[in-house]
Amino acid sequence: MKLKRTLKWSARVILLALILGFLVGFIAYWRSTNECDRKTGAPGNPMKAVLHCEYGGPDVLEVEEVEKPVPNDNQLLVRVRAASVNPLDLTIRGALPLRPFFGMRKPKDTRLGVDYAGTVEAVGKNVTNFKPGDEVFGGKNGALAEYVCVLVDRSVVLKPANMTFEQAASVPVAAITALQGLRDKGKIQPGQKVLVNGASGGVGTFAVQIAKSFGAKVTGVCSTRNVDLVRSIGADHVIDYTKEDFTNGTERYDLIFDLIGNHSFSERRRILNPNGICVMAGIGGAGWHDGFATRLLGELNAYVRSRFVSQKFIAYIAQFNKKDMMILADLMQSGKVTPVIDRTYKLSETADALRYLEQGHARGKVVINLE
Ligand SMILES: NC(=O)c1ccc[n+]([C@@H]2O[C@H](COP(=O)([O-])OP(=O)(O)OC[C@H]3O[C@@H](n4cnc5c(N)ncnc54)[C@H](OP(=O)(O)O)[C@@H]3O)[C@@H](O)[C@H]2O)c1
Q1: Which of 29, 150, 168, 313 could form a disulfide bond with 159, CB atoms 3.0-4.6 angstroms apart?
Q2: Which atom of ligand 1 is nearest to the CA of 364?
Q3: How many A from CA of 360 to the centre of ligand 1?
Q4: Nearest ligand 1 atom, CA 360
Q5: 370 CA to middle of ligand 1, Å?
Q6: Which ligand 1 atom is nearest residue 357's CA?
Q7: What is the pLDDT along the chain (371 residues), one digit of tens a residue?
Q8: Is the pTM of this model over 0.90?
């Protein structure tokens, strides 16, 4: 009798929670709005920026005039000379699991892009370490625009003189991901055997070079058309995934830097040394592809199962910081890392750039030139 009553009340509470959850979701959905809804008249001091007022494919992108930002006391105003696109920018599609963070019905932040390189045009009154005319690069939301304001203590650093704006703009997200994955998660050491799965893409081309700069012996995995490219950026060995499955080989690795996640926990574990580490950095080239969901679940499974074995399988999200940006600038200055640029588009062609990136077969970085 008591059990029956408890079950009845539990069912009522669950039902009420579901109704409340649905109501909150419904209200959040309809209240979700963005600056496109609030726009009144033409900007007083205009600049061009890429906007997406709605969720959708690259077709929703528009280059519009918005108010040019004004730096506060601790900011730099940077005239963007080049930017680059990343798989991250495809959040414009508004995948349902991401909407609670990015806006339920419409994107909260209508601006696009993160990676930029440009010239400092003005500095706030507390800024002492940068001056107008300095050439800089870094990461800032809304970088696909003629100008950005950046806090001076964030990830903005001087551009090495031997790098073009396009090269510097290719660096931030992709190279930070490679650096932090190899160094912090993978604990890379000189002389180690490192395999980079997805060596020909935006992150992979940096990973191969950064791993080499740590003194590792690097094997890159890519398709036939990219074998020469991956070898040219320093890989000691290249495996063509269309001809050979790297998990069937006899080689054992200390570190797998995996940007694709298309092999199971057991397959990858078999080719790792007993204390080896697999850094699970991504699940394939940009855009939706077959096996997307399976790979995601596979990586979750690998993470859990690796808790019970000697090898480690680690996932992470790269974070910007000034120190790492300076390390990357030094690596470029010394010639140890040279960005690989696949294609360059104009700001007005950003939608085409994302359409290309979304195919998942970029060879290095896709850059937007604002000159
Ligand atoms: N953890 C983080 O913080 C973080 C940060 C940035 C990016 N990511 C993730 O890292 C992954 C890679 O990013 P990205 O910017 O390098 O993407 P990307 O530039 O779009 O990668 C494209 C490359 O992936 C290669 N590729 C596709 N399928 C492959 C396969 N089966 N085996 C080997 N290579 C394959 C393609 O080569 P082919 O044309 O020859 O197939 C192409 O060169 C993405 O999943 C991204 O979301 C994670």
Answers
A1: 168
A2: 19
A3: 7
A4: 20
A5: 25
A6: 20
A7: 678 888 888 888 888 888 887 787 667 666 667 788 777 778 999 999 999 999 999 999 999 999 999 999 999 999 999 999 999 999 999 888 888 889 989 999 999 999 999 999 999 999 999 999 999 999 999 999 999 999 999 889 999 999 999 999 999 999 999 999 999 999 999 999 999 999 999 999 999 999 999 999 999 999 999 999 999 999 999 999 999 999 999 999 999 999 999 999 999 999 999 999 999 999 999 998 888 889 999 999 999 999 999 999 999 999 999 999 999 999 999 999 999 999 999 999 999 999 999 999 999 999 999 98
A8: yes
Residues with a CB atom less than 6 Å from ligand 1 = 86-87, 173-174, 177, 197-198, 200-204, 221-223, 226, 241, 259-260, 262, 281-286, 316-318, 357, 360-363
How many angstroms separate the alpha carbon of residue 202 from the centre of ligand 1? 7
Q: Using CA positions, which residue lies closest to atom 32 of ligand 1?
A: 198
- Ligand 1 atom with least separation from CA of 315: 1
